[in-house]
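User: Sequence recovery, please. Input:
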């Protein structure tokens, strides 16, 4: 079976866009201007869609007077989309690495629930200034609207900043060895939509802002549903 797809992210395997600049091999080296553009774009994409937001709008939202700022720093809109993925995955990878090390230290088996927690819970910290999970909303729109059109991303090329993510994916793949590669892809894409949509809905109905037991219950229930769905036996072909 091929390498496991990435939960919480677009599926791996797309070609690297020529619009992506080599600097994003190390997202930690991004300057303040690029980060502002990335976060402004993520917020606008989450509210509308990738296709409907202009590069001029992004530059203006980032407080940049140069309308060509996106092209200058990222080459294209595709390059900017890839930069969002690169920046956010890098932000989550340290938390995931620490989680893997904690599992090893306790000699705990990496069951599906533990792996899903390592993959999904870091998404809770990716919010804007108002507490909205803009990255989750961006991912939902990407998977539903932009992914089918073949919009590429850079996850495959970011070997240094996705080490923990790749380890987790490999373990999940082993747990899903009873499935075909196509079903693995399909189930994990659906799992990503489930968790990220749950976060967006929780933002919209005020549960995220309130926090507490209700949000915790939603998160735990969503992870339980995803675990059950991922491990369900495949239905025999008719």
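Assistant: Recovered sequence (238 residues):
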């Amino acid at each position: 079976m091929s390498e496991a797809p990435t939960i919480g992210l677009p599926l791996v395997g797309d070609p690297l866009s020529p619009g992506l600049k080599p600097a994003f091999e190390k997202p930690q080296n991004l300057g303040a201007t690029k980060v502002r553009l990335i976060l402004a774009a993520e917020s606008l994409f989450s509210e509308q869609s990738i296709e409907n937001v202009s590069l001029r709008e992004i530059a203006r939202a980032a407080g940049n007077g140069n309308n060509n700022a996106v092209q200058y720093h990222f080459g294209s809109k595709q390059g900017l989309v890839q930069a969002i993925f690169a920046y956010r995955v890098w932000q989550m990878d340290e938390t995931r690495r620490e989680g893997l090390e904690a599992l090893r230290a306790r000699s705990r088996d990496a069951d599906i629930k533990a792996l899903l927690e390592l993959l999904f819970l870091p998404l809770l910290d990716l919010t804007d200034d108002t507490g909205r999970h803009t990255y989750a909303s961006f991912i939902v729109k990407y998977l539903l609207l932009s992914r089918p059109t073949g919009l590429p991303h850079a996850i495959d090329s970011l070997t240094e900043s996705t080490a923990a993510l790749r380890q987790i994916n490999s373990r999940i793949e082993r747990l899903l060895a009873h499935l075909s590669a196509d079903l693995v892809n399909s189930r994990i894409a659906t799992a990503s939509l489930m968790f990220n949509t749950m976060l967006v809905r929780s933002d919209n109905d005020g549960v995220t802002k309130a926090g507490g037991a209700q949000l915790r219950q939603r998160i735990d229930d969503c992870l339980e549903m995803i675990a059950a769905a991922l491990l369900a036996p495949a239905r025999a072909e008719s």
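Residues 7 and 188 are 6 Å apart (CA to CA).
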